[in-house]
Write a structure and sequence with these properties.
Blueprint lengths: L2 E8 L3 H12 L1 H8 L1 E9 L15 E2 L3 H4 L6 E4 L7 H10 L3 E4 L2 H18 L3 E2 L10 H8 L5 E7 L2 H13 L3 H10 L8 H4 L2 H15 L9 E2 L7 H9 L2 E12 L2 E12 L11 E8 L3 E8 L3 H17 L20 E2 L4 E11 L4 H10 L5 E8 L4 E8 L2 E2 H11 L4 E10 L1
Parallel strand pairs: 1-2, 1-4, 2-3, 4-5, 5-6, 8-10, 10-13, 10-18
Antiparallel strand pairs: 7-9, 7-11, 9-10, 11-12, 14-16, 14-17, 14-18, 15-16
Helix pairs in contact: 1-2, 1-12, 4-5, 5-10, 7-8, 13-14
The structure holds L-homoserine.
């Protein structure tokens, strides 16, 4: 006897369309394989006359209550994007006992405790595999497969737009603004690209990943965030000359009671597995006491890959309605006060300076680092503008605060700091 599962959609754009197509095309196979008869019975859109969707017009509605309060709907799939009203709607659905499946990292990262509490009270499920890394099954891996381990590092390329831009800059020596404009023309970057290029999207995803990996709530506000808008082809070219590839990384590390969470452009050794993840691909590297190294790679966006992850959640949830997956940490509004969220992490650093080409300048540079116990691992000097030299160096491991102090001390009439990029080995 097939189990009938009735779905309501919140939003019905690109992702909703992908889910509709997958569930329509696969309906009979899913019925035969899993005994689930998945039916899409309602879809909330902003405006029915303006809706551009293949979903049948007869199930479209402009009234959220038609989805949230209809007792016939078992499960609500949210693809509205943005924090509100998506979070409010998901909370209402959970309070009404409906399982929620979402791809919305922003609404989840900012309202996870509220959604979690609503789900716990009603016994409904809350699933979000597609919220990080698109089709990459990282949420399930961390929540279930690696639950017994002690994860100390989760580090990934979790934004396809920025990876596409950096890859093209590296391959063709193109400037950031030119690649961004082209990516927007091709529909690969949003008309307002800030969420991607300023690192917000990656920071929401890191808040979710590191909360699960480190078994504690890591709120979005704790994530240090820098984007890629200041990166130049020169940075990428000099990094390559020194053996490194540039990526926008989301990095979460835990050592005892200290956690660091940061999103910023990062140089990786050319032979690091993440360095070879190009174009719009995503990949997430995990290190744990027992699992040691592992990496998952795949499509982080797009209607089909995202639909695959969402429908995986729908099927799992449909077969486990009475026993939903619940992360094992206490999902509090704030971080645990017994933990230290550090911004004085240890890293290696790539620093590009422009200096007046005169005796003593290099000694001044070396002094500023040496005075703060920062050791230089390699250095290049290249001619730049008339009478100036580009000095490019990579440090050994140093503390972030000490490095920032050294850069402040360096800045003078003689030396300008053109860029500072962290280096992960
Ligand atoms: N805008 C995101 C990216 C996809 O470029 O990867 C959705 O999270």
């Amino acid at each position: 006897m097939a189990k009938i599962i009735r779905l309501g959609f919140l939003g019905c754009g690109n992702i909703g369309g992908g889910v509709y197509h997958l569930l329509t095309e696969m309906h009979d196979e899913i019925l035969a394989r899993d005994g689930l008869d998945i039916q899409i019975v309602r879809a909330l859109v902003k405006s029915i006359p303006e809706a551009r969707t293949d979903v049948p017009a007869c199930i479209l509605t402009e009234n959220a209550d038609d989805v949230l309060s209809d007792p016939a709907i078992d499960m609500v799939c949210e693809y509205m994007g943005g924090e509100q009203p998506a979070a409010r709607f998901m909370e209402a659905a959970l309070k009404n006992g409906k399982t929620v499946v979402t791809a919305n990292k922003m609404a989840l990262a900012l309202n996870w405790h509220t959604l979690h509490a609503a789900a716990a009270r009603s016994g409904a499920g809350l699933y979000y595999e597609a919220s990080v890394g698109g089709v990459i099954p990282i949420i399930r891996s961390l929540t279930i497969s690696l639950e017994a381990d002690r994860i100390d590092c989760v580090m990934g390329i979790v934004n396809g737009t920025t990876n596409y831009i950096l890859t093209r800059m590296a391959q063709n020596g193109e400037k950031y603004d030119d690649v961004l404009a082209d990516a927007q023309r091709l529909g690969l970057a949003e008309p307002n690209p800030a969420a991607d290029v300023d690192g917000f999207d990656a920071a929401y995803k890191l808040s979710i990943l590191s909360s699960i990996a480190f078994h504690t709530r890591v709120t979005y506000e704790k994530v240090h965030r820098e984007g890629i808008t200041h990166i130049t082809p020169d940075d990428i070219a000099y990094g390559r000359e020194m053996g490194y590839t540039l990526k926008l990384l989301a990095i979460g590390k835990r050592s005892g009671n200290t956690i660091e969470v940061r999103v910023h452009p990062t140089f990786l050794r050319n032979d690091h597995p993440l360095a070879r993840v190009d174009g719009s691909l995503n990949a997430i590297y995990v290190h744990g006491a027992y699992c040691q190294d592992m990496m998952l790679q795949g499509r982080g966006a797009g209607d089909k890959p995202t639909a695959s992850a969402i429908c995986g959640d729908i099927l799992y949830a449909a077969s486990h309605l009475a026993d939903p997956i619940v992360p094992s940490f206490s999902n509090t509004p704030d971080t645990d006060p017994s933990l230290l969220f550090s911004d004085d992490w240890t890293s290696r650093y790539f620093v590009r300076l422009n200096a007046v080409d005169t005796p003593g300048v290099l000694a001044h540079v070396a002094d500023c680092f040496a005075a703060r116990s920062i050791s230089i691992a390699s250095i290049l000097q290249r001619p730049s503008a008339e009478g100036h030299a580009g000095i490019i160096l990579i440090t050994h491991e140093a503390r972030e605060h000490a490095l920032q102090e050294a850069l402040s001390a360096l800045r003078s009439d003689m030396v300008s700091v053109e860029s500072m990029i962290r280096v992960e080995d």
